[in-house]
## 1
Amino acid sequence: MKQIALLAVALLMGTTCLAQTQNLPKPNLQRQTLTVMEMFQQRKSVREYSAKDLSEQDLSDLLWAAIGVNRANGNLTAPTAMNRQEILLYVFSRQGVCLYNSKAHSLTQVAEGDHRDILAGFQSFAKEAPVNLLMVGDFDRFGSKDAHAQSMVSMDAGYVSQNIDLFCAAAGLATVPRATMDIAAIKNLLKLNENQVPLLNNPVGYPKE
Ligand SMILES: Cc1cc2nc3c(=O)[nH]c(=O)nc-3n(C[C@H](O)[C@H](O)[C@H](O)COP(=O)(O)O)c2cc1C
């Protein structure tokens, strides 16, 4: 009975980040999209979004494209310097905040409730997007926080953000890479340590009708 009630709530609220750990549908590697040249033609920053939630499949494909495992050796769709795989990808939605686990292709809830406003910062358009993907550089995982490390980790976050941009261009979704966000509030909410640094975010949604 309790399970039926939970299922009903899940169906009512949408599935993004509801359960403690939620397996995503397998990424659709046969997804029909634009050609690579058409995709580059479509790549642009978009700052208006439909409020409609992303479908589970679109979210799954988006996260896999961003930083999913694409080879048997565990390497990722985004390159990272020395393969340190130090970029943490958080998903902010109406339902809560989740951390994407590339290896399991799953989401684990790390905070309840709608916190898209702290990612939006002073750019209120960003909180209209149904999801906002936050890239956090984990310098503990990278193994250093010196000037060279800061440059490498920032570049690695840029690759993840560009993967998001290009997937959105190909799939007809709207996004913009952003450095704007309330870093202090994010660190507080996600209980980040001093070596885990919010670097970029991408609000993502269907285009506004
Ligand atoms: C590292 C980086 C940070 C950015 N930060 C923001 C931002 O905080 N807010 C915003 O609206 N756009 C931001 N942008 C998007 C740029 O403004 C946008 O890419 C630029 O105006 C060119 O437009 P286009 O992407 O449509 O070609 C950022 C882009 C990059 C690459």
## 2
Amino acid sequence: MILILYEWMCGAGDRVFEMTSSFSFFSELGERISTRTARVSTVGLGYVGLPLALTISEAGFPTQGVDLNSARVADINAGRRVISYFPEDRIARALDTGRFAATDDATRLADADIILICVPTPLSVARDPDMTYVVRAAETVAAHLRPGQMVVLESTVWPGATARVVRPILERGGLRAGADFFLGFSPEREDPGNHRFGTRDIPKIVGADDKHSRELLAQFYSCIVTEAVPVSSSATAEAVKLVENSFRTVNIALVNEMKDALDAMGVDVWEVVRAAATKPFGYMPFYPGPGIGGDCIPVSPVYLSWRARDVGSGTPLIDLARSTNETAPDRIAGRVAVELAKHGGVAVKGARVLILGIAYKKNVEDTRESPALYALNRLEEMGAICDYHDPYFPVMPQTRDHAMLAGRRSVMLTAQAVAGYDAVLVTTDHTDVDYPLVAGSARLILDTRNVFQAQSVTVPDGRLIKI
Ligand SMILES: NC(=O)c1ccc[n+]([C@@H]2O[C@H](COP(=O)([O-])OP(=O)(O)OC[C@H]3O[C@@H](n4cnc5c(N)ncnc54)[C@H](O)[C@@H]3O)[C@@H](O)[C@H]2O)c1
């Protein structure tokens, strides 16, 4: 009896101690956040991690970005504009304040109070979720984890991944989430190149599986962005991101299907979408194009359907939209062949085609999952001879799915060069392209983005086809 009482008292004592220490970690970090003295580290300084780190330092927090890529770290510390749509001096200004620096030394994570993981979550070769970057980053954080820190995963993952993948790794050393350290998920909603909504203007969803972590996440992100939106769990926050992107995936597939159907009826889909968008409720415009690209829209729905299958459910509508989007570049290549034959009787085999834009969307230097590269590849398989022009890529970068294209050079956009092609295929509507020059010299323009009409550039009769 005495033994049982003794064990009970010791257990209760431990619990009281745990609750007290957890509460003191909570109030200490809360105090550091409110005085903007909490030291923040982002793991990953890419399209998401770098703008985030800069925004946090601009909000007054001492911030360091940790990245494995030493060359990128050196560029950032030299103040070079590594992301083209940034204001020229944004990085330099952040460095000048003394509140921001980049490092490739992961041991510095031990100094941080708050660690935000912003590493890639691509697809594997088999096109399943590839969580290896997240696992490695979590292992790195775990190696330097100390009591009182807060860790937030920002990479896009399947619902449940923070709790099932990241948490066990962080707890391997004996510290426990919600008691010794705080853990949560906040999806990144960055839209690269969007000057209307930067990191600071986009509300942040924050989710965690215990009350203290939830409150600290909400407190911290309220200092950084216009609004923090708390949700009840990390899985809910993970799901929000996937729902947003799956919504886009399905609507892009829908509008591309509309384009083909309306085209056959002789109706201009862009005019239809523009007119439909005047409805003040119940409709949101999506625009046709050569397919989807980037690190988000083609990838998130895969994470969602993979997890749905894993738990015995399914997402057939999303899967159909994905396959519609994935085959869009093939359909574009097919249309190029048809239009070449119709306009001048040119066979696609041996035809010279200039691909205008290889980035997955306008005004960014990012070719991940770019539909332009898939269309280029397909045209070459059909026997076309393709070149490209892209002001953001003087040289074609290395990509996993198009390794054999790496090293090709962007052609100069002169009237003489353009006139030498049987067709110009517009795949990306970058702003910094001389569209009047193309209009004046191309034999045939196949425009997947409606950029000529959008920019009011007149093309001589019969030479512009919107595909
Ligand atoms: N790019 C977007 O538009 C966008 C938008 C919203 C969400 N996301 C999501 O945000 C996440 C990050 O995407 P991104 O576009 O910033 O990727 P990115 O490839 O541009 O950058 C990732 C960076 O992480 C670094 N890195 C990888 N592993 C590391 C490690 N263990 N330690 C330190 N650094 C490491 C890489 O060197 C790279 O610089 C992904 O999950 C993505 O789906 C991206």
## 3
Amino acid sequence: MSETSTGDAVAVAATAVQSAATDSWRRAGLAGAAIGVIAAGAAAGVALERLTVGRRDALRRGDPADAEAFANEVRRFYPFVPFVGGLAAGELRWQGVVVPEGSLVLLDVYGRQHDPDVWPDPYAFRPERFLGRSVASDELIPQGGGDAATGHRCPGEDITVALLSCLSTRLADMNYLVPPQDLSISLRRVPARPSSGFVVSLRVPSDA
Ligand code: HEM
């Protein structure tokens, strides 16, 4: 899919579908937000292991731009929410395809985040792709698409980025070992998270 067409897909899914969520789903959603942030934190730990010593040092120094770029690459690279779903509130047409009212519409979040037309070399973890550029709202959609007030976009995105940035800087500055564990991430569960979580053993200084 080209950049334009996936951007259109984001807009269609975000504005023309209504959430199937009931009030109880929404309450569950807030619990889900906390679980999502925990999953994102575990993924940030896994991602730190991919950084060169130089990049980890930059994160440790606490430069806000580096921390935000790292947080955004974690959100792009790892599939906390592989897709977002909704029901078409009315009949709609997209690129000649008619979507009848009541149809289930899925926004392919993982696909968009790994679309090579939007993200060159999408399976490489590169925080620097976020440095020195602004990102259009329909490019980066790890927490849904469209506008948070009217579409299917999470209103907690800024908080998530701030939490991840802060956590990543702290983690980069900690002295720990990562024992053998299963860090694979299955796309079959939401939120997707490393199978083992992210278990670390702290190294305690010998004079402590
Ligand atoms: C990694 C962390 C998070 C992920 C992946 C995530 C993802 C999402 C997604 C996909 C939606 C549904 C959008 C839709 O279909 O309408 C959503 C909704 C929501 N999120 Fe998040 N979220 C995260 C963190 C947070 C945080 C930290 C907060 C608040 C502090 C938050 C608050 C909400 C609320 C209130 C909604 C419901 C909005 C509505 O229905 O009007 N989320 N989130």
